[in-house]
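From the shared-data thread, chain only:
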Amino acid sequence: MRTLAVVGGGVIGLSVAWCAAEVGWAVTLFDPASGSGASWVAGGMLAPLSEGWPGEEAALAFGAASLARWPEFAARLQVHATTELFTATRTLTVALDTADAADLRTIADWVNAQPLPTLDSARALSTSATARTGDIPEMSAQGDGAGGEHLRLLDRGGVRALEPGLARTVRAGLLANSEPAVDNRALVNALRIACAASGVEFRAEKVNSLADLSHDRVVLAAGAAAAQLWPGLPVRPVKGEILRLRRRPSAPTPPESVIRARVHGRPIYLVPRSDGIVLGATQYEQGFDTAVTVAGVRDLITDAEAILPGIGEYEFAEATAGSRPGSPDNLPLIGYLDERVIAATGHGRNGILDTPVTVDAVLSLLADAQLPEARSADPGRFRTSAPISSGGVR
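Structure, as tokens:
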């Protein structure tokens, strides 16, 4: 039996290990504390469309390809989960001023014009949401996702009808009915169970050198730490702080949608959970610093109150920080670094979104093929400190 070492036990590493074991590889996963890094801190948003911007065609196509795979991926994993994986079925990006409202129109016009894969399967998660929003006022004739139009512009009244708890100062919204969110911690726990059921061997060990591993293939999925094991790999840590707020009896219910916005130029999101809200996220270039700062907490809470005034009634439950694995062009690195080692890292803030397409890409490489949707993520687009091969041992 062919042997595979997966170095890194975040959502990417766990998913690769699980799926590779299911297709016949003898898999060993190396991580001192699997699932405890950025994957445990994440918000769980699956929102490549809402984050789209003209000129970023490759990032949009890659994220959309993964979003289209999420319903099937989640259905396979749900049998191993102890709770429902999805916590929201749609994403609403809101604007507080005229400039932000203009940006929403720019995003909608550009994304709706792109040749994206069908997202009907992802939209099936939003059947009830679509029914509720059928008569909501729009800013223009943008669609609700049908007929290739994935984003829908809403005016002030439309936003209020969809999410009445939002601030009255919200001017406009951009609705993505095909962009859900998952509970990242439920996802991590389900992946651990799925790996164990598939025969993955867990080694709570830190790998100091890939050369020490004797396996036939190695998948480097160590996130922000990947460059420590492959010097020169253009992956860096990007710090992000997230707050978890628990709903008290006196507090308003969480939004049904994922809410995204920019407040004072800072991006913010509120992701519903069964017991409250995940509020994020700051972004700093500070190396592997995962201390939560007073300024970070202050900015998140202040900005959140500008969007959801009732959030002050919530209980402050947790403040955490993680290191996202950033890349120079905001696309991951997925491909052979030499004839044995495959990179699967550099996903930035989209690690959970990009998981299904990353798994398919890695499995294709293990089968000496290449997934067309992942060509833009080939690490050969960057220079590294060791030769890059276009494939494994043939």
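Residues 25 and 143 are 44 Å apart (CA to CA).
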